[in-house]
Every structure is written in structure tokens, then in C-alpha cells.
Specification:
The structure is a single chain. Helix 2 crosses helix 5. The protein is built from nine helices and two strands, in the order αααβααβαααα. It is globular, with a radius of gyration of 15 Å. The chain has one domain. It is an all-alpha fold and 141 residues long.
Length: 141
């Protein structure tokens, strides 16, 4: 499928999801008010930081859990997968032990949305190799 056609299909799906309360809620929770993920190249670079990181733990816990957080995680992952947002080595992306975020999702999340939902003190806890504090320090306010 051509890149333009795939982009059109994804945008159509996102537009459809935005028209439902549940779909809009899932997209907003994951990507913020704009509902647009970061470019694939950036998601790929972010994923390389997470894969192999000692803070990348608890593989696929959301598949075994039954609580509301696990249900929300599965809903966001379903949207991500339906939109075909994938990176190399994705099966090795798990949960960040520092913030509790699903790395398969957070690599696609705009840094402004992450910043709005992360306490300043938490950013000091990330390892030096982490992309989150690096992107925040390189981004003007």
C-alpha cells in the first residue's frame, strides 16, 4: 500500500474514532488534545532508548491484568495497532519502571502531552540515556 494511501486510511480511522466519545477519550488520553502521534522516525529513535534499558520492565502485564488501567492500556494499544503505528523491536518495549507508562504507547506521544502529565521531580529519576528528559531539555517552553 502506498504511503499516502496508508496515511489516508489511518487519518480516516482517527477521524472516525474522534467522532465517538470512547474513541476520542482513548486518543486524548494517549496522544493529548491534538490526537496526532509523533513522526515514525522519532518514535523509532525513542524506542531504541527504551529497548535494553533496565527500567523497561513487566512485559505485557496489561494482557494478564483485569483492572481499569489494564483495560485502558489495551484500548490504547488496539487503536495504535489498528493505525499501524509500529517500530522495529516493538515486542521488546514494555513498561517504564520510572513512570509506569507503556513504552509501546509513550514513544508515539507528543512531548508536550508527556510534560503536562509528569511531575518535574519525576524527570530527575529517569536514567541518563532516557529520551524524555533529553527532549524536554532541548525543547523551548
Amino acid at each position: 500500500m502506498s504511503r499516502l494511501r496508508r496515511f489516508s486510511n489511518v487519518m480516516s480511522l482517527l477521524d472516525t474514532l474522534r467522532k465517538t466519545a470512547k474513541g476520542l477519550s482513548v486518543i486524548t488520553e494517549w496522544l493529548g488534545d491534538g490526537g496526532i502521534p509523533v513522526p515514525k522516525e522519532l518514535a523509532e529513535a525513542r524506542s531504541k532508548c527504551c529497548i535494553g534499558c533496565p527500567e523497561n520492565v513487566a512485559p505485557n502485564w496489561w494482557d494478564r491484568a483485569t483492572g481499569s488501567i489494564a483495560m485502558a492500556m489495551r484500548a490504547m494499544l488496539a487503536v495504535k495497532n489498528e493505525c499501524e503505528y509500529h517500530v522495529d523491536g516493538e515486542e521488546d518495549l514494555h513498561v517504564c519502571k520510572v513512570c509506569g507508562c507503556c513504552n509501546r504507547l509513550s514513544i508515539w506521544t507528543p512531548i508536550d502531552h508527556i510534560k503536562a502529565h509528569t511531575a518535574y521531580e519525576e524527570f530527575k529519576k529517569y536514567p541518563s540515556r532516557c529520551w524524555k528528559p533529553k527532549e524536554l531539555t532541548n525543547k523551548p517552553d
